[in-house]
């Protein structure tokens, strides 16, 4: 019989070929998820491990990770903002960078149950964060029925089914005729923004993620252009449009917004690494 920190040490070594310097962190995440213990408890718990119970699930997750599957998919969980989400290959893995999109929206939304629209909800990460932090009611759209199902499941898991509704369909089309034109405090979107010819250059792990959530077309802006054109219909005066963008797209997207004459002057926001990550503007 072994204790958890001994299992952890073995797991770290087995993960090293695929995780490199992140092997310790990934081992902690994997074992924490499978045991339900916080990462610190893995080092402090001296009780013998029931390996006959733990080993099958551990070997399954480890096998998937050693095949190159991202750790989040291997354990079926990802962290975003201050909560945990269920994820699998039906949805994009939430990135820390996308938290800036939430921060920008929260600065202008205020509280008091505003109406927010998210185009392309994916796992539900952004919608859930906005609903939790502001009390907002979020209307989401999602082209992938599989992703929509996962977003709804995550909303239910976090007790937010009464404040998040996700409709299957393209861009803003599912919301037409719902009587919400001119009512939204914000329209937010983290669109697919990788240029099609850059897709083969992405890190190998991204091959596990849905193409629909990554490939933004020839210039990477297929969905972005449509959101800019369509969001004004749903925003109240002064309402916020906020878009995550690729590393070299911010100025082009800002220009696109400014040329539309439906919004005030677009602002570009940098993430913690200094990358131009979010473009926002207010409805005039």
What does this protein structure show overall?
The protein has two domains: 72 residues, Orthogonal Bundle (Helicase, Ruva Protein, domain 3), CATH 1.10.8.10; 205 residues, Rossmann fold (3-Layer(aba) Sandwich). With 284 residues, the protein is of the alpha/beta class. It is 38% helix and 18% strand. The strands form two sheets. Strands 5-4-3-6-7-9-8 form a seven-stranded mixed β-sheet, sandwiched between helices. The longest helix has 16 residues. Helix 6 packs parallel to helix 7.
CATH domain fold name of the largest domain? Rossmann fold
Largest sheet: 7 strands, mixed
Largest beta sheet: what is the strand line-up? 5-4-3-6-7-9-8
The average pLDDT score comes to 95
| Uncertain regions spanning at least 5 consecutive residues | none
Number of strands: 9
Q: Using the CA coordinates, give the radius of gyration.
A: 21 Å
Overall tally of domains: 2
CATH homologous superfamily descriptor of the largest domain: Vaccinia Virus protein VP39
Report the sheet-strand fraction: 15-25%
Helix content: 25-40%
- Overall 3D shape: elongated
Structural class: alpha/beta
Going by CATH, the architecture of the largest domain would be: 3-Layer(aba) Sandwich
């Amino acid at each position: 019989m072994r204790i958890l920190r001994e299992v952890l040490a073995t797991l770290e070594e087995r993960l090293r070929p695929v995780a490199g310097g992140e092997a310790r962190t990934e081992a902690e995440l994997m074992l924490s998820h499978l045991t339900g213990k916080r990462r610190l408890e893995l080092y402090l718990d001296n009780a013998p491990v029931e390996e006959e119970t733990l080993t099958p699930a551990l070997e399954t997750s480890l096998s998937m990770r050693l095949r190159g599957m991202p750790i989040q998919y291997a354990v079926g969980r990802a962290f975003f903002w201050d909560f945990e989400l269920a994820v699998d290959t039906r949805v994009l893995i939430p990135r820390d960078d996308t938290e800036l999109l939430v921060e920008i929206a929260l600065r202008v939304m205020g509280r008091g149950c505003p109406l927010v629209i998210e185009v392309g909800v994916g796992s539900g990460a952004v919608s859930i964060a906005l609903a939790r932090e502001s009390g907002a009611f979020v209307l989401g759209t999602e082209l992938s029925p599989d992703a929509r199902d996962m977003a709804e499941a995550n909303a239910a898991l976090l007790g937010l089914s009464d404040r998040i509704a996700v409709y299957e369909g393209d861009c803003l089309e599912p919301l037409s005729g719902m009587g919400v034109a001119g009512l939204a405090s914000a329209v937010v979107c983290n669109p697919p923004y990788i240029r099609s010819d850059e897709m083969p250059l992405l890190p190998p792990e991204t091959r596990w993620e849905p193409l629909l959530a990554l490939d933004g077309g020839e210039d990477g802006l297929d969905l972005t252009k449509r959101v800019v054109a369509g969001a004004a219909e749903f925003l109240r005066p002064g309402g916020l449009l906020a878009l995550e963008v690729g590393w070299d797209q911010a100025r082009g997207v800002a220009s696109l917004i400014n040329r539309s004459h439906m919004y005030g002057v677009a602002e570009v926001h940098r993430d913690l690494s200094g990358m131009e990550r979010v473009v926002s503007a207010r409805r005039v």
